[in-house]
Design brief:
218 residues; Endonuclease Iii, domain 2; Endonuclease III, domain 1; 11 helices
């Protein structure tokens, strides 16, 4: 049996984003146009913490702006430190008073208890391969494939993640290609040429999507 690879998983940097975007532009004429118009996309880094997972829960099926507003209220009431203990103490009723839906308040409190009882250890995720990170996140109530992929991309800065359920990615690529990618298999096939830089390509599509709507990227 071959020895296990003990190296830590790769992480994106600002320079890696720029280099990767240039490489993708060589492979994909549509992304070349995005790069020529807007330059390399930003890193979009978030801390690999409990707070980021709560923020991701808030972003499920709502606008980025709406989720950010609710998350900022949570930060205000916790003096800027969103921890598992603080969310558990607020409980579902406290979160709902800040604008969490009933369901999302339940998910956030369950996540807090999972962290406090040790059944979910966020600080171990950075050492694990992508598939194992996904498995551990998806095992939490209310956190699915999209949530895991966003955490991998922004929290752990993994270079080759394709969040197939992401609305901005799907809509943005449909607009760039003037094609329909409502079927996830078609989206995955379209993105094959981007490997192993799919996280960078996704950022480029996000960049296109928000700029077409007159906004800065997230």
């Amino acid at each position: 049996m071959p020895p296990q690879d003990k190296r830590r998983p790769q992480r994106l940097t600002k320079q890696a984003i720029a280099t990767g975007a240039a490489e993708l532009a060589k492979r994909d004429p549509k992304l070349r146009s995005v790069l020529q118009q807007f330059g390399p996309p930003p890193l979009l880094r978030r801390p690999a913490t409990f707070a980021t997972l709560v923020h991701i829960i808030l972003e499920q099926q709502v606008s980025v702006e709406s989720a950010k507003s609710t998350f900022e209220r949570l930060k205000d009431i916790t003096a800027g430190d969103v921890t598992a203990e603080g969310v558990a103490n607020l409980d579902e009723s406290g979160l709902r008073s800040l604008g969490f839906s009933r369901q999302k308040a339940h998910y956030a409190v369950r996540l807090a208890h999972d962290c406090l009882d040790g059944s979910f250890r966020i600080n171990t995720l950075s050492r694990l391969p992508d598939d194992e990170v996904r498995r551990r996140i998806i095992a939490r109530k209310g956190l699915g494939q999209w949530s895991a992929d966003v955490f991998l991309m922004m929290g752990l800065l993994r270079p080759d993640v394709l969040p197939v359920g992401d609305l901005a990615l799907v809509k943005g690529l449909c607009e760039i290609d003037q094609n329909d990618y409502a079927n996830s298999d078609a989206l995955v096939e379209r993105a094959e040429r981007w490997r192993p830089l799919r996280s960078i390509a996704t950022r480029m599509v996000w960049q296109w999507y928000v700029r077409q709507r007159g906004r800065d990227i997230f």
